[in-house]
Amino acid sequence: MSAWTKIPATIVTGFLGAGKTTLIRHLLANVRDRRVALIVNEFGDVGVDGDILRSCGIDNCPDENIVEFANGCLCCTVAEDFAPALEALLAHKKRPEHIVIETSGLALPKPLVKAFEWPQVRSRLTVDGVIAVIDGPAVAAGRFADDLEAIANERAKTRTIDHDNPLEEVFNDQIACADLIVLNKVDLLNENDEALVVAQIKASAPRAVKIVRARGGRVDPTIVLGLGAAAENDLANRPSRHDAMPDHDHDDFESFVVELAPADDPAELVARLAEVAAVHDILRIKGFVEIVGKPMRLLVQGVGARFQHQFDRMWKAGERRSSRLVVIGEKGMDRASVTAMLMNFERP
Question: Which CATH number fits domain 253-343: 3.90.245.10, 3.10.180.10, 3.40.1280.10, 3.30.1220.10?
Fold first, then answer.
């Protein structure tokens, strides 16, 4: 690589639980022709995604090439966090040849793309493309739009939409900035629901964008990497409702961590978590749990009331075996009630 060649960076965005980390893990396992670095930006104090990616054990993306932030908004801390992290990555003896950035599930991607306008960033890197990962079943369930027909009609008339739903705002901003949309979890959709989801995505997109269907985040890396979009030079074609706003933080959402006692049974634990999520309309619960008598830790990830769990690795020698879950929801959720319900595993 020439010393003057800009390193391409791919931004992977998508709502909470859409499958961004799964997609990235698949990319790492199948990209063998270049050295890759990761920057993971989470919303919440339990670094689940970074920990999952560190456990990949892939030679072309060693642990020192994985940088994790828990501030939820990298673009707000370009000088303090983002630029220094890039400098550190590029200073490695074997510097990365491609950088993948996973945004938090509540992030608006356009401000992050704008961060590439900073001179010390622009001179070294270019945004190869913005990939929006869409949770097909969540969209089909109506989480991101109350009235698809009204959205389509309004966009046809004015090309703008005034949102009252913060989930919908994030969803639409992520789509509006995308160079490629990955419609994930299509195996959980029937034909009719899939068609409705595609229609909603197209109604929300300000321009024609290719949609790739995926199961479990499995997408050919040659489709995702190498788009050559130079998105930092194309900001005008990525409209956002937040363009005129002075900030773009996560005031509509909040998170907190709950530490639980070791669980006896994974299935019983997950059933209880699903109940809590449904009762309190929680957006996301994820973390690691100790299971009594098991030498491996349990990875738990939930989107709404849909949960997955698996033993991901052995507890390390000397590692504190804790059970910590990050809970993410809309502003104003009853933290005390959620915490009490999570910690009380006795059925009422």
Answer: 3.30.1220.10
